[in-house]
Amino acid sequence: MDESKQRIGDPERERARATLERQATEGRLTMDELSDRLEQVYAAATVADLERSLQDLPPLPSTDEVLESIGKLGALYHRGALRKSEFGARKAELLGGLASTDRDDVDAALDRLTQLYHSGFLDRRRLGLLLAAADDGPAAG
After folding, report:
1. Of 69, 131, 125, nearest to 98 (Cα)?
2. What pTM does this model have?
3. I need a labelling partner for 98 at 20 to 30 A (CA). Which of 59, 66, 89, 117 fits?
4. CA nearest to 19, candidates 45, 55, 48
5. What is the pLDDT of residues 20-62, one digit of tens each?
């Protein structure tokens, strides 16, 4: 089956809504355009319907790209190059463009790393290496 004809659900609509709101925040859509496009999103039944509401807008970073960026910031924080408040502010800015379901995934991944660090399974150096892994690609075995 052609992917554009596949039916969508609430999670896909939520991601589209978050994308449109972020694009409006960045000045790419007027409030009237945002309102019109949100109506299209909530009426959408297929992938193609959703794509029409987003087609002329630049893509926002994916969840993986946001995690990679947060990892880089975390490595800077753990090396002492960023203050905690600066790390938190930049993390919040990166998460702002994601749908709430994607933000939950990112937060869960970061929380798990933090738990491993606090339980002693990761020392500060290894935590920094994991958070910075996106800089170098997959670690060699």
Report:
1. 69
2. 0.55
3. 117
4. 55
5. 988 888 899 999 999 999 999 999 999 999 999 999 998 877 7
Residue with tokens 């463009």: 97
Nearest Cα to Cα of residue 3 among 38, 55, 51: 51
Please name which of 139, 131, 112 lies closest in space to residue 70, comparing C-alpha atoms: 131
Query: DSSP letters of the chain?
Result: --GGGSB--HHHHHHHHHHHHHHHHTTSS-HHHHHHHHHHHHH--BHHHHHHHHTTSPPPPPHHHHHHHHHHHHHHHHTTSS-HHHHHHHHHHHHTTS-HHHHHHHHHHHHHHHHHHHTTSS-HHHHHHHHHHHHH-SPP-
* The CA-based dihedral angle spanning residues 63, 65, 2, 15, taken in that order and rounded to the nearest 10 degrees: 30
CA distance 33 to 17: 13
In one letter, which amino acid is 72? K
